[in-house]
Structure formats: structure tokens, C-alpha cells
Specification:
The protein is α/β, with parallel strands linked by helices. It has a single domain (about 5-250), classed as Spore Coat Polysaccharide Biosynthesis Protein SpsA, Chain A (Alpha-Beta Complex). The protein is about 30% helix and about 20% strand. The chain is built from six helices and eleven strands. The protein has helices at about 15-30, 65-70, 135-150, 160-170, 210-220, 235-250; strands spanning about 5-10, 35-40, 50-55, 75-80, 85, 105, 125-135, 175-180, 190-195, 200-205, 225-230. The strands form three sheets. Strands 3-2-1-4-7-6-8 form a seven-stranded mixed sheet, sandwiched between helices. It has a two-stranded antiparallel ribbon with strand order 5-10. Strands 9-11 form a two-stranded antiparallel sheet. Helix 1 links the parallel strand 1 and strand 2 (about 35-40). It is globular. The N and C termini lie far apart (about 70 Å).
Length: about 250
């Protein structure tokens, strides 16, 4: 197996192994040629599902269960994906930031969520469901700091691993790149899809991932920026009101 570049999943429990099957199949369809490793405590992974099965040494019901497998990745360059994703378009270019950066990740839609967080809102929280990274000492040191801060501080107040990641990434001496939301689209929240770029990876706990992908593809066919998710009527009215007022002012001031 080529360990230069590959895809990593972590699934603790049969429920998440089952969920990972959809994600893995989508990688086979759209990220062809990359080996796939699965870190799991399951003893019943179907033959041929992945290229490498790595036993999960310390199974636990915690978001932190994925951090050690990321540290111990078998690849020099890794695309880590949560089990609840769907790769819906070819996206080999997701590795491109690693030509200049150590790690690439998208922002979380909430940006900041918890009172226990200490960083200013201008340094928003990343979403750790899609991470592209190099296996460098700087990145691995950051991941160890991430685990330590989660287990000893943030995890005592909230199960989410992202506040600790946010702090560890801010403090780390690494170069990181922010991916656009098309590479980690959280469909539970309103999102802006850019013009002339299709959604590449959808990330949500839902059985309708393929249906969402089809709807997004049709809605975005014009290539114009598209909003996915709920809209507040007051904001829509205000938007068009200001547009009309600007046009009228321009016309009246001719």
C-alpha cells in the first residue's frame, strides 16, 4: 500500500462502522487511487471495504477517540473524514494546500460556541470533521496539545473536541489554510456555496446525503453563488429594500 497520501476514518462501535460504509463508497467513487485506512474496534469489517484496518487500542464514547488515530496516521499526507460525510464530487485538489501549508481545515458554522472558550471571535473555531494535514512534528505536537487540552480542560465542560482544537491550532507553530465550506458543507445550517464551484463534501448525520447532493447540484447549475438552508424573512426583505433604495437613489441623483 502506498503511504504517501491517503484517507483516514475512525469508527468506534458498529453504528459508526455502518455509517462509514457510505462515506468510504463515496471516496472510492470520487477520490480514486487513494488508499483508505479505518481505525476501529469492530471485528466484523467487511472484507475489501478498506485497504488497511488498524485496531482501535482504547475505544471510548468521546469525540477525543479520533485524536490518537490522527497522530498515528499511516500516511505522510492524510485526509481525515468523519464517518458522516459524503464525497459528492471529485476533489483531489483538497490536498493542494499541503504544497505550502501543514494543515487545511474549514470553519465551523457556529464560529464560536461555548462560554469556556477564551480566544477572540476573530479567531473562529474550525470543524474537525474534515482535516487535511502533513505528518510533521509540528502538526503531531499540535494534535497532542489538542488531546491534552480536551481531556484536561474543555472536555470536562463539553464533549465537543473543537474548542480544544481551536486553541491548539492558534498556539501551534504551523502554517494552516482555511478551506471553503464546499469542502465541509454542514447542511443543518444555512451556508453560502460559491459561484463556479460545486459542493465537494457534505457533512451531516442524515440518511438523505445523496438526495441533498442531487438537490444542490441542480440548484447550483447556473454557477452563481447559492444559499443552502433556511432564510429569515426579515433579512430577505431588508436585503431587497436596500437594493431598491440604492437603485432609486442612483436614478434620482442623475
Amino acid at each position: 500500500m502506498n503511504t504517501k497520501r491517503g484517507i483516514l476514518f475512525v469508527a468506534c462501535g458498529e453504528k459508526y462502522v455502518e455509517e462509514a460504509k457510505t462515506a468510504i463508497a463515496s471516496c472510492r467513487a470520487h477520490l480514486k487511487g487513494y488508499p483508505i485506512a479505518l481505525v476501529t474496534d469492530s471485528k466484523s469489517v467487511p472484507a475489501g471495504l478498506v485497504d488497511l484496518i488498524i485496531p482501535l487500542e482504547k475505544p471510548e464514547k468521546s469525540f477525543a477517540v479520533k485524536i490518537q488515530p490522527l497522530i498515528n496516521t499511516p500516511f505522510e499526507e492524510t485526509l481525515f473524514l468523519d464517518t458522516d460525510v459524503l464525497v459528492c464530487e471529485p476533489c483531489d485538489e483538497i490536498f493542494a494546500p499541503l504544497e505550502r501549508y501543514d494543515l487545511a481545515i474549514a470553519h465551523d458554522p457556529y464560529r464560536t460556541s461555548y462560554k469556556i472558550e477564551t480566544l477572540p471571535v476573530s479567531i473562529p473555531m474550525p470543524n474537525t470533521g474534515v482535516i487535511v494535514y502533513k505528518r510533521t512534528e509540528g502538526v503531531l505536537r499540535m494534535f497532542r496539545r489538542w488531546e491534552e487540552r480536551h481531556r484536561n480542560h474543555f472536555g470536562k465542560h463539553h464533549g465537543n473536541d473543537q474548542p480544544a482544537f481551536r486553541e491548539a491550532m492558534f498556539e501551534a507553530d504551523i502554517r494552516h489554510f482555511i478551506l471553503p465550506p464546499e469542502y465541509n458543507l454542514r447542511t443543518f445550517f444555512p451556508s453560502m456555496i460559491g459561484g463556479h464551484i460545486d459542493v465537494k463534501i457534505i457533512h451531516e448525520h442524515t440518511p438523505y446525503l445523496h438526495e441533498i447532493a442531487r438537490v444542490l447540484k441542480r440548484a447550483h447549475a447556473t454557477g452563481a453563488p447559492t444559499i443552502y438552508g433556511r432564510l429569515k424573512p426579515g433579512l430577505v426583505w431588508f436585503y431587497y429594500f436596500t437594493k431598491v433604495r440604492r437603485v432609486l437613489n442612483r436614478w434620482l441623483n442623475k
